Amino acid sequence: MRGKGLLKGLGVTGKAIFSKRVTEEYPDVMPDIASRWRGLFRLDIDKCISCGMCVRACPNEVIKITTEMDENKKRKLSGYEMNLSYCLWCGMCVEACPTHCLRHTKDFETATFFKDEVTLDLFNRPNLSAPVSTFGQPDKEKEEKAKAEKEDEK
Predict the structure, then answer these.
(1) In terms of Cα–Cα distance, which of 131, 65, 62 is closest to 92?
(2) Residues 104-135: pLDDT tens digits?
(3) Which one of 5, 9, 87, 93 is separated from 71 by 20 to 30 angstroms, measured CA to CA?
(4) Rounded CA separation 107/104 (Å)
(5) Which is nearest to 65 in space by CA: 90, 32, 26, 96?
(6) What pLDDT does 141 receive?
(7) pTM of the prediction?
(8) Per-residue pLDDT for 153 more than 70?
(9) The pLDDT of residue 27 is above 70
(10) How far is it, in rounded angstroms, from Cα 39 to Cα 109?
(11) Domains of the chain, each with CATH number or no CATH
(12) Which residues, in sequence order, are CB contacts of 39 under 8 Å at separation 6+?
């Protein structure tokens, strides 16, 4: 039948025209962000072992870390900067971190007026008070289901 696609398209448009309008009052009311949102970054300096896995995982070389040797001949983190103007927000750095000290937060407001404000210094401002995203973390529900299935098999 000719025109079947046209009728389907008009049906979708008609539903959209007569549906209820959704308006978010953003500056006054903060939007509900998904739990796996990839927002700004948070660094737990105490857990960081200065391995550089996040630096090697970043495709745009956004991350620059500086380390120094302590009295026990171990690397100690002395600086951690990210240039967010080149960041893809891919999350590869978060997934590569073996100690899970680098995490995404739910912060989404990254706009600035000046280019020098785009560099994020996570060593001096680790952003520990921001709400944490669950991106790059093991899915608790899947782990619990797998554990329950293993128990059922026994």
Answers:
(1) 62
(2) 998 888 888 998 889 999 999 878 888 888 88
(3) 93
(4) 8
(5) 96
(6) 63
(7) 0.72
(8) yes
(9) yes
(10) 8
(11) 33-125 (3.30.70.3270)
(12) 33, 104, 105, 106, 107, 108, 110, 130, 133
